[in-house]
């Protein structure tokens, strides 16, 4: 059975994930995307309207399953009541790291793309990314503050921002390129999840106890 033919819109989104993930938003020209997707600028304008709108659509598509799974897990934890910081951190981190598994062959590309966009130096691009992630991420921050009632809200927010940063670094595979990283960064997704959750829980406990 022949594989289904990708539409022009799908090709543009797929190539955008690859190119933005490798070169970032400013380092990737719209022409490079259209050439690789065997399309033209008119096709981008027709389907999306602009380069930024193409990026927004790619982020929205990539983040949708992550946001859905994070929301499902948080809803369940809130229904059960008295969620621990470790449960909340795992419910947030695991869907992000499992993105590579859930999306099959394209998983690593999408994971790298999301990690790169989250760290883009442009405030406008970070704002765009946040617009797709904030609704559920804001709920997690509130849940962590509720699970850590003795900690100052700003201290919890500091830990939360650093959790986002570490997750994005692992998604973009930046840490795996560090000297000696092959000796310290687990290659198995579940091992990486367990290690990152344990590290974050310890960091929250140590950091908050110092405030």
Describe the structure in brief.
This protein is mostly helical and 211 residues long. The protein has helices spanning 8-23, 30-36, 41-47, 51-80, 85-97, 99-102, 107-118, 123-147, 153-171, 189-209.
Structure description:
The chain is mainly α and 211 residues long. The protein contains 10 helices and no strands. The protein has helices at 8-23, 30-36, 41-47, 51-80, 85-97, 99-102, 107-118, 123-147, 153-171, 189-209. The longest helix has 30 residues, at 51-80. The termini are far apart. The mean pLDDT is 85.
Spell out the blueprint of helices and strands:
Blueprint: H1 8-23, H2 30-36, H3 41-47, H4 51-80, H5 85-97, H6 99-102, H7 107-118, H8 123-147, H9 153-171, H10 189-209
How much strand? under 5%
Q: List how many beta strands DSSP finds.
A: 0
The biggest beta sheet reads:
none
* SSE series: HHHHHHHHHH
Q: Say what oligomer this is.
A: single chain
Give unreliable regions as ranges: none
User: What is the mean predicted local confidence, pLDDT?
Assistant: 85
Offer a few descriptive terms.
mainly alpha; 10 helices
